[in-house]
């Protein structure tokens, strides 16, 4: 690789010390490298990163921060189809597996072409009200449908490929990718799935029933979640959250249709840590 681009989280690298070290190291080895600071809530169609600023021919995007920064960058730059490498400046992450201790060996591997590209499935969620689209976004980790307002459960009506599945009261529902299986879904009792797999995981959040568990669906299935009526036929308010970032308000009768996205995130793997090793460390099993 010869052309690099850095997206850096200034909250994690406040004085751009590590960013500067990477730029200097790459340029000292004859490589091209430019930098963009991830900004909070940009104006326009993008969230934190403007993909139009990334030069043509860029071969790798290095994301400095953590899993959250990489998630934000992935959603903005996915249509550029440039592989991402996450540099974790905090705790060990599932996405940003390279840390500052292994930074220079990782850069050496990139320059030497010693890497693999792993495709990560994404989700597209489209919110409908009275048959009309009121919002749409993509997610690499998960789409969460939950309540908005008072602390009370919401009725969810669930469909798979337009066929009725079930209904139940809960705090919310998580629709996760394999990448997102180690996030919010896991904390709510969902299964851990290898990130290289292709499937969709549906996990309830604090369901008010004993017989509802996570369900795993094949990638071609389309899941629809409808906000049901509240107690005494009240109108409920909900939110659809994409990777914990974009929020689309929903009300009783609104539906969100979730399917495998036509685009995917490309993650660079340097064999520094494979998924099993990261999982073992995260789970505390030595």
TrEMBL record:
Gene3D superfamilies: Probable inorganic polyphosphate/atp-NAD kinase, domain 1, Probable inorganic polyphosphate/atp-NAD kinase, domain 2. Involved in the regulation of the intracellular balance of NAD and NADP, and is a key enzyme in the biosynthesis of NADP. Catalyzes specifically the phosphorylation on 2'-hydroxyl of the adenosine moiety of NAD to yield NADP. NAD(+) binds at residues 67-68, 141-142, 152, 171, 182-187, 206. Its cofactor is a divalent metal cation. InterPro entries: ATP-NAD_kinase_N (IPR017438), ATP-NAD_kinase_PpnK-typ_C (IPR017437), NAD/diacylglycerol_kinase_sf (IPR016064), NADK (IPR002504). SUPFAM superfamilies: NAD kinase/diacylglycerol kinase-like. It comes from the Bacteria. It is found in: Cytoplasm. The gene is nadK. GO terms for biological process: NAD+ metabolic process; NADP+ biosynthetic process. It comes from Candidatus Blautia faecavium. It holds the Pfam family NAD_kinase_C. This is NAD kinase. Its EC number is 2.7.1.23. Keywords: ATP-binding, Cytoplasm, Kinase, NAD, NADP, Nucleotide-binding, Transferase. The active site is at 67 (proton acceptor). One of its GO terms (cellular component) is cytoplasm.
